[in-house]
Design brief:
Blueprint lengths: L2 H13 L21 E3 L2 H9 L6 E9 L22 E11 L2 E4 L14 E2 L3 E3 L10
Antiparallel strand pairs: 1-6, 2-3, 3-4, 3-5
């Protein structure tokens, strides 16, 4: 995920769910059942953490939403890609805590130069990927 893709992903969320407007699915209908959970595998999380400061580093989590314009963010091998349209998801960004805030690596020129590899997206989300079904 690039910085520009992150901006567009978060923008779709800000324009709808964050303001209380329902997301629209692939047919333009309101999404009645929004995302319940998102899963990132250990490899993705460890890759991001490895880029951060061992003491003050972590992961910043952005809320975003898929729409027709950013559907290419969903991994190409997902058979249910279009079912992600209108759904909330997460983007993870490697970040370091400083005295004056928490800074994404891609946005902090005083540390190592962050890159697009410091941002991850593509979590499996439920729905549409609800295996096993939600039972909590």
């Amino acid at each position: 995920m690039t910085r520009e893709e992150l901006k567009n992903f978060v923008s779709a969320y800000n324009k709808s769910v964050r303001t209380g407007i329902k997301g629209k699915d692939k047919e333009g209908k309101d999404v009645e059942e929004q995302t319940s959970w998102a899963f990132f595998d250990r490899e993705v999380i460890e890759k991001l953490l490895a880029q951060t400061d061992p003491k003050d580093g972590g992961i910043k989590i952005y809320l975003g939403q898929y729409d027709k314009d950013n559907l290419d963010l969903v991994p190409k091998d997902r058979k249910d890609r279009e079912d992600y349209i209108g759904r909330v998801s997460l983007a993870l960004s490697a970040a370091n805590k400083k005295e004056d805030g928490i800074f994404d690596l891609f946005d902090n020129k005083s540390d190592q130069e962050g890159s697009d590899s410091s941002i991850e997206n593509g979590a499996a989300i439920c729905p549409p990927y609800c295996r096993p079904p939600i039972n909590i």
